[in-house]
Amino acid sequence: MTFGFGIIGCGMIANFHAKAIAELRGAKLIACYNRTPEKAESLAEKYGCQLEGSLESLLARPDIHAVTICTASGAHMEPAVAAAKAGKHVIVEKPLEVTLKRCDRIIDACRENNVQLVTIFPSRFHQSAQLLKKAVEQNRFGRLVLGDAYVKWFRTQQYYDSGAWRGTWQLDGGGALMNQAIHSVDLLLWLMGDVVEVSAYTDMLAHERIEVEDVAVATLRFANGAVGVIEASTAAFPGALKKIEISGSQGTAILEEENIIRWEFAKSNSKDQLIREQMAARTKTGGGAADPAAIGHHAHRDLLKDFLSALKSGKAPMIDGAEGRRSVELILAIYKSAESGKPVKLPLSGDPVFKNRTSKKK
Questions:
Q1: Are residues 247 and 307 in the same domain?
Q2: 113 and 153 in one domain?
Q3: Do 141 and 87 reside in the same domain of the chain?
Q4: Is residue 85 part of a domain?
Q5: Are 279 and 263 in contact (CB under 8 A)?
Q6: Whose CA is closest to 80, among 47, 49, 113?
Q7: What total of structural domains would you count in the chain?
Q8: Quick one: angle between helices 127-137 and 182-192, nearest 10?
């Protein structure tokens, strides 16, 4: 069986979905839709799919079995819920949504309509990240003591000015954390486990006409007792590859984008030197550090391959709705701590109430 795909939202990231679908056996991009027809026309022409004039007409197509939601972050829920009600499987670009209530609406709609839900976090599918996960599961780090994520990226003022939704709470959901660093937040949770308390600072220091943060620092207490740090920025010129650092009583590993730049364990094995050699220069792009388009689509492809496997087997995909929700919850807790000046415990009982969000976007 060939699974037909539709793309909803035809901005920059939709190109990576289209390229990934094109390389999957048993998958075909059938149609796309965008509120601005010109973007949809361009995508349809580039990738040889059909253009649909409305969301309803795309969802009514019997040859479309799954849709990928590539709209602005705070506009994921409506098309995702509509797709689930139409019986389509749902793939949602990160973040799943920008509030827990909206995340839960998507999760509930997919469960009620018996369709699969996937959140796009391609970094989990990098071979280097998989090796770190395996090392954690094999207890090679011993007692985990530190888990850190560093995303020191750069975005120009023109980047934020290029779209009315960029840098807004309503549609971007946040800044350096919710839009850019969320990939690393997801990786950190995947590797280290749940966070039970955060304390944070955020600010907007180097950009204009945005509502959200361009710098953030949070300290974390994990459920396993380890502590950690998240640093995120879109104001760190010229931008650097993101890093994940995992340390324990018996080992340390540092992941720089797809590169493993440190891999040391008290009890070494025969594969360790080969990992150090083969994983030292895996990154072939800028990793999005200064240009959001400077990423590869290979991990999107591998994520969608996992999704197709889940459809065929009936098992849950690696990154389902609940997994997608985790990073949003942590980021919202960080925002609440930064606003209140106090530590915030997790899990959150609901969406936090923010008192100091005033519009600065013109």
A1: no
A2: no
A3: no
A4: yes
A5: yes
A6: 113
A7: 2
A8: 30
Q: Which domain holds residue 83?
A: 3-122+297-320
| Rounded-to-integer distance, Cα 192 and Cα 201, Å | 22
Task: Report if residue 351 sits inside a domain.
Answer: no
DSSP tag of 362:
-
**How does pLDDT run along the chain (362 residues), one tens digit per residue?**
899 999 999 999 999 999 999 999 999 999 999 999 999 999 999 999 999 999 999 999 999 999 999 999 999 999 999 999 999 999 999 999 999 999 999 999 999 999 999 999 999 999 999 999 999 999 999 999 999 999 999 999 999 999 899 999 999 999 999 999 999 999 999 999 999 999 999 999 999 999 999 999 999 999 999 999 999 999 999 999 999 999 999 999 999 999 999 999 999 999 999 999 999 989 888 889 999 988 999 999 999 999 999 998 988 999 999 999 999 999 999 999 999 999 999 999 999 999 988 666 65
Residue 99: closest CA among 35, 158, 172: 172
